[in-house]
């Protein structure tokens, strides 16, 4: 009988270990903000597109660690491919919010690239405001220390919050110098170099379009004093002024994937690591592709599958440890 209190505590803790889910209206015309959070209610299966999630939909929030982490999804992305990371953060007591980036989400890709990159930091800040204004979450959170995680284009957003400045013209110069080596960065998934006779034509036309679209030399920067820790996963970074990331304004962690064929590491994550000596390498995934941090992985085909899917032999069993390392970074700094 003397063991019953301990057993009761374990069963009670297990009963409370649920991930709540809700959706908040965005502010100032923004899209919805998806929120995952600690809840004591029972989880049920929820279907979102091809994904099946176990969550306590509209479950009553319970007190966690009082901290918020905002996740900025990649181009054409959604919250659903980051739910394993969201659950790891919720298990550690965090509330997790996903803004839907205007013109750069799974429903609308009309503004991918610099138009979205300019808007994204403000959308993150307004997502913080939206969660803070909600009567369910306001009493449970202290918003003086907020974390931001981003992957790919979301990593670009994260680097901006860390103090990095970027300009479209820097991307144009990068592509002029390195388009053959970093073709997917400069052109996207619409076409590829095959080694055939048409490659020269593709490069010539692409450079003409890039010079026209990305001619603005003005630096873009952004600051929200509430953001106190940032993690950038496989970030789009070739358009950054790297010296601006040499001394980030907040702790900056990086997650890198050695076999990223969309954002060639030496021009992106490795360049940030070389510029930022105080940055922390949160996780190194040497055998991972650009999509290694998407968990669960979306069903893909064609060129997108070539750029994002796992390379042969990649073991996804290592990803929960990556999520734990990201979570530990935020626990340490928030």
Q: How would you characterize this protein structure?
A:
With 334 residues, the protein is an alpha/beta fold. The protein has one domain: Rossmann fold (3-Layer(aba) Sandwich), CATH 3.40.50.1820. It is built from 10 helices and 10 strands. Strands 3-4-1-2-6-5-7-8-9-10 form a 10-stranded mixed sheet, with helices on both faces. The protein is globular. The termini are far apart. The relative contact order is 0.13. Residues 1-15 have low confidence and may be disordered.
What's the architecture, going by CATH?
A: 3-Layer(aba) Sandwich
Portion of residues within helices: 25-40%
Tally of separate domains: 1
Largest sheet: 10 strands, mixed
Cα Rg: 20 Å
> Count of helices?
10
Shape: globular
Give the strand line-up of the largest sheet.
Answer: 3-4-1-2-6-5-7-8-9-10
List the quaternary state of the chains: single chain
Give the structural class.
Answer: alpha/beta
Mean pLDDT rating: 93
Helix and strand pattern: HEEEEEHEHEHHHHEEHEHH
Named CATH topology: Rossmann fold
User: Spans of 5+ residues with little confidence (pLDDT < 50)?
Assistant: 1-15
The top-level CATH class is Alpha Beta
End-to-end C-alpha gap:
41 Å
User: In CATH, what is the homologous superfamily?
Assistant: Alpha/Beta hydrolase fold, catalytic domain
**Strand elements, count:** 10
How much of the sequence is in beta strands?
15-25%
